[in-house]
Amino acid sequence: MFVLETGFSILITIAAWNAFGSGWGDPDTLGELDWTWLVMLPLNAILAAMAQGFYSWRIWSLTNRRLWLPILIGCVMLTQVMAAFYSGMTIVVRGRSVSQLFGLWPEITVWLSGSATCDLLITASLVYILTRHRRTSQYPHTTGLINKLIRFSVETGSVTSVAALVKCTLWLSCREWNIHYIL
Questions:
Q1: What are phi and psi of 32, to 5 degrees?
Q2: Could you give the 3-state DSSP secondary structure of residue 80?
Q3: For the segment 135-158, what is each residue's pLDDT rounded down to a tens digit?
Q4: Which residue(s) pair with 32 in the sheet?
Q5: What is the pTM of this model?
Q6: What is the pLDDT of residue 132?
Q7: Measured CA distances, 8 to 90, 112, 114, 127, 134 (Å)
Q8: 5, 8, 85, 107: which sits with the fewest CB atoms below 10 Å from its CB?
Q9: Alpha helix ranges (H) inside 17-104
Q10: What secondary structure letter does DSSP report for 110?
Q11: Where is the DUF6534 domain (predicted)?
Q12: Smallest Cα–Cα separation from 157: which of 135, 133, 125, 111?
């Protein structure tokens, strides 16, 4: 995952340079997606699936191997990954312009809302499961560790969930300005 994240960071830097560095002064470069975007869409989906898959497995192991919640998270994860891959392939086929993104409004909406839903499910599930385990613990040291895990889950999960919700909201409400790219 570290290697893929590093590759993603390199690709996003190249895309930013092409749009704002070498494309400076040419407004047409802001409307075109360069080659890096064709790799970033599926790579973004793969990275999200890896993280969400790990947390789904973690939830499965914390719920004493009950399957319904990890299967639900996995289905949402696979849906958003497939929507991201489809969007990337369609952009390659139709042309690499920002206007093509608006033609993929349903697919990108499924992708972004699926990602936000998956992150919210993971955060809420971890907090609920850990809180339930904290109530059954009889040892103060274990309760303290579980409290730290709950705090960590709330802090990191809420940041991820809020960012995904804001990105989805910006896509749905401000499409003509592409503000959702900020996140």
A1: -110, 140
A2: helix
A3: 888 888 888 998 999 998 888 898
A4: 97
A5: 0.85
A6: 87
A7: 20, 18, 21, 30, 38
A8: 5
A9: 35-62, 68-94, 98-103
A10: H
A11: 115-166
A12: 125
